[in-house]
Amino acid sequence: MARKGSFSAISSKLVHYLADRGMLTQSQVADVLNVDKSFVSRVASRQREFSPTQMQELADHLKLPLGVLMLDSNRPAAPATGERKKIMDLCERLIKQCDAAILEVREAKAHKIETRRAS
Question: Considering the entire predicted model, what is its pTM?
Fold first, then answer.
């Protein structure tokens, strides 16, 4: 029986997205996350789910912002129209802005660490 966790469908779509695009096999996902391959198989079948931290680890491994990875791996099968499209477009813009802000914070922290080491 499939688990009804909030991340189970998102996690499953992510596993299939990575495999379908030749980005990571289930075995490689397991290696990146340091989990058993059977766990990733159960994620793919919606019996288990990734934690948000695990999703971030995959995005970091792929050198992609998490928001972009989530948007790309969870696109609806049919294009949205009307008011739903407006809402989805707004959400996508906000997610990308958040990704950019997170990147700026990470770069600022890295710069601060480098500056401290140099002193």
Answer: 0.73
